[in-house]
Design a protein that fits this description.
This protein has 755 residues and is of the alpha/beta class. It has 24 helices and 26 strands. Among the domains are: 204 residues, Rossmann fold (3-Layer(aba) Sandwich), CATH 3.40.50.1700; 115 residues, Immunoglobulin-like (Sandwich), CATH 2.60.40. The strands form seven sheets. Strands 11-16-15-14-12-13 form a six-stranded mixed sheet, with helices on both faces. A five-stranded parallel sheet has the order 4-3-2-1-10. Strands 18-26-25-20-21 form a five-stranded mixed sheet, with no helix packed on it. It binds beta-D-glucopyranose. Beta-D-glucopyranose binds next to loops.
Length: 755
């Protein structure tokens, strides 16, 4: 009913101005393709270019001021297709859509925002969630983010970031799903499905955006925005799969990237955008530039000026210009006077943008995401907090637990809770937090459960929880050590919460030294010297290097940034209400000098270096070649035994399959979850193949004493790779099957032959 009313309202205005009947593009009975074509025919070149133009709202002073009359006028003239970073929820979005409704053709705006790990309810940072290896939970996290965001007027998120990364110096590693193409592809799909919902026009869904296309995570030396120099085989085998998976999951949009790839800025890369994405993968959505990345092609030394950059970008397949102001100023001349850009190129880009606006129902109701009641309900839904808490507990990795120090008993008489992160609220959000940047009205002290509050609430009333900060995250002040040592001495057990600060990872937050900042390691040493049992919580967005802690502290929980329910989730795991089940989605190095270090490397001709035997072997004189903690590592409070590996047969051809089965038994005393991992190795190839590659996994729940049968099916697609001619396929030969609890902890093995 409401739909029809709005439709006739819009149509009515148009009729009065220029038409006798409802224009076809506003007729909901017409197919989307026909509506797009009808609208396109009516548009002037200026209006078409407008659809490819995106501005940011005034997040901070350095951003353009949309309240500025100039931009307001442009929206009214149909010269803006999308806005990002709108603060103020439905009320403000409604104002902007009102402006768009004053334009001649009344084309609604796409409203974009970086909804990366939750909207108000803040979930763990994406890398932390990836550690859960729990695809349903990850999907639910994106779903809830979409439910909240869409209720505030947002209809498009610039997420998921699906960049593979093998370099923890890169601050944006926290936004991805780690180093493995298989795991990251599944997570990419879960996130796209979660954000977008089941139907393109789900009012509680938002368009997703696979970014940053491509290879941004391989920035040389882990320095953000740096060049990427990579073989095409590595690009195809390792870096492109999550993008391809997102494309196959119907992700609405792609974002290109700041880096150059082998000398060509990704924003101007025809190979990436036209040949691969829109050509080979037949992507039907549109590509948005990264922030100002069209303009940055001048600085790269790839374009003479903004006009040249705009031509290069659109010809390469970049459809929408985010914040370079190039398309809006120069596309017109490039088409009409210079004839460098053919109108069909512009039409194709505009079609792609319009199609999305139709698909998400914006033409039928430009205000469909602007319902104040829905907004209020979505932002105060207690179920969302429950899901965030559960996701957070699933993300915590138990790296070490000597002598089963964990879980702690709730009736421990005195616990010392020490460290710079214990009483923090906002730090737990990590980077890319909407609450932190956009929602000044949220009372973070109440909304975010600090680690202190979470633990305090969980302990028995007559147990004591003592506090000392010890030191700051950064700086060299050790004056708080004495108090911290005194607290430790009075405690039966000490929990130390240390790490980075929330903005030491994220965009432009690369570090060359990824050890614990400041004097925190010294604090840990001082507390350990008291002889008390110590549990360390490490808070960060990236893998850090903490060798002393790893060697000397009996229990370590890697807590990443866990979001608004951090304190509750940490208490859940510390006291054993939740048995940890997370596994590292990437390799933790021992030394920065080992980077890039990843589990699915080649063997080389000289493997096997050890501490003492490294001469003429591929190793180091001063550090082992092995990781500190391996990809897939993560302990539980219980133990799992793997047995009875069986392969249904020992040979297969490319149309057959082999079933791999085994029994897993929970031999400990707690119920728990285990991620059973299947790795394969292609022994001999026309190009060398990795020493192992994750090809499947199952996350299973077992009661104490319970045994479950786990099965994997090996089909030909699990054996395929890109050869040196970039042809994708499998090659006959022998394959090793490895079943493990991590990439290093391989428990069972066998082999088969592909005929
Ligand atoms: C980031 C993108 C982000 C965009 C809009 C850029 O600086 O690289 O990932 O989506 O800003 O906020």
């Amino acid at each position: 009913m409401k739909k029809i009313f709005i439709l006739s309202l819009i149509a009515g205005c148009l009729c009065a101005a220029c038409e006798q009947q409802t224009p076809r593009y506003l007729d909901t009975t017409v197919s989307i393709d026909n509506r797009v074509e009808d609208l396109l025919k009516r548009m002037t070149l200026a209006e078409k270019i407008g659809q490819l133009n995106q501005y940011s709202d005034d997040v901070s002073d350095s951003y353009p001021m949309l309240r500025n009359d100039y931009y307001v006028q442009e929206i009214k003239e149909g010269k803006v297709g999308s806005l990002l970073n709108i603060t103020g929820g439905t009320k403000r979005v409604r104002e902007y859509q009102n402006l768009a409704m004053q334009s001649r053709l009344k084309i609604p705006l796409l409203i974009g925002l970086d909804v990366v790990h939750g909207y108000k309810t803040t979930f763990p940072t994406p890398l932390a969630e990836a550690a859960s290896w729990d695809l349903d939970a990850i999907k639910l996290s994106a779903r809830i983010a979409a439910v909240e965001a869409s209720a505030t007027g947002v209809n498009w998120t610039f997420a998921p970031m699906v960049d593979i990364c093998r370099d923890p110096r890169w601050g944006r590693i926290m936004e991805g799903a780690g180093e493995d193409p298989y795991l990251a592809s599944l997570i990419a799909v879960a996130r796209v499905q979660g954000f977008q919902g089941d139907k393109a026009d789900a009012v509680d869904g938002i368009m997703a955006c696979a970014k940053h296309f491509a290879a941004y995570g391989a920035a040389l030396a882990g320095r953000d925005y740096n060049s990427v120099d990579m073989s095409l085989r590595t690009l195809w085998d390792t870096y492109l799969p999550p993008f391809k998976a997102a494309c196959e999951a119907n992700v609405a949009t792609f974002m290109n990237s700041f880096n150059d790839l082998n000398g060509i800025p990704a924003t101007g890369s025809r190979y990436l955008q036209r040949d691969i994405l829109k050509g080979q993968w037949k992507f039907q959505g549109f590509v948005v530039s990264d922030w100002g990345s069209i303009g940055e092609m001048i600085t790269h030394g790839y374009a003479k000026n903004s006009k040249d950059a705009s031509a290069k970008a659109i010809l390469a397949g970049n459809d929408m210009d985010m914040e370079s102001y190039g398309y809006i100023r120069f596309l017109d001349t490039l088409v009409t006077d210079d004839k460098i850009v053919d109108i069909t190129v512009v039409d194709d880009a505009v079609r792609r943008v319009l199609r999305k606006k139709f698909e998400i129902g914006l033409f039928d109701d430009p205000y469909r995401y602007c319902d104040e009641e829905r907004e209020k309900a979505a932002l105060n839904n207690p179920e969302h907090a429950k899901a965030a808490r559960s996701m957070a507990a699933k993300s915590i990795v138990l790296l070490k637990n000597d002598n089963n120090l964990l879980p702690l008993s709730k009736s421990t008489k005195t616990v010392g809770f020490i460290g710079p992160l214990v009483k923090e609220h906002k730090q737990n959000l990590g980077a890319w937090s909407i609450v932190d940047v956009f929602m000044s009205d949220v009372n973070c002290e109440e909304f975010i459960v600090s680690q202190w509050d979470g633990v305090r609430q969980r302990m028995d009333a007559d147990s004591k929880l003592l506090y000392a900060k010890g030191c700051e995250i950064e700086g060299d002040d050790t004056s708080g050590f004495a108090e911290a040592i005194a607290v430790a001495r009075q405690s039966d057990v000490v929990v130390l919460s240390i790490g980075e600060s929330k903005l030491m990872t994220g965009e432009a937050r690369s570090r060359s030294d990824i050890s614990l900042p400041g004097v925190q390691e010294e604090l840990v040493k001082a507390i350990c010297a008291t002889g008390k049992p110590v549990v360390v919580l490490i808070n960060t967005g990236r893998p850090l290097i903490f060798n002393w802690v790893a060697d000397n502290v009996p229990a370590i929980l890697y807590t990443w940034w866990l979001g608004s329910q951090a304190g509750n989730a940490i208490a859940d795991v510390l006291f054993g209400d939740v048995n940890p089940s997370a596994k590292l989605p990437l390799t933790f190095p021992r030394s920065v000098g080992q980077i890039p270090l990843y589990y699915n490397h080649f063997n080389t001709g000289r493997p096997g270096a050890t501490d003492t035997d490294y001469v003429f072997k591929s190793g180091y004189m001063d550090v082992r070649t092995s990781p500190r903690f391996a990809f897939g590592h993560g302990l539980s409070y219980t133990d799992f035994q793997y047995a009875d590996l069986k392969l249904s047969k020992k040979t297969m051809n490319s149309s057959e399959q082999i079933t791999v089965s085994l029994n897993v038994t929970n031999t400990g005393k707690y119920a728990g979850e285990e991620v059973v991992q299947l790795y394969l190795r292609d022994r001999i190839g026309s190009v060398v193949r990795p020493v192992k590659e994750l090809k499947d996994f199952k996350k299973i729940h077992l009661q104490a004493g319970e045994t479950k049968l786990v099965e994997f099916v090996i089909t030909n697609d699990k054996l395929c790779f890109y050869n040196d001619l970039l042809q994708y396929g499998s090659e006959a030969g022998e394959f090793d099957v490895m079943i493990g609890s991590s990439s290093e902890d391989i428990r069972l093995g066998d082999a088969f032959e592909l005929k």
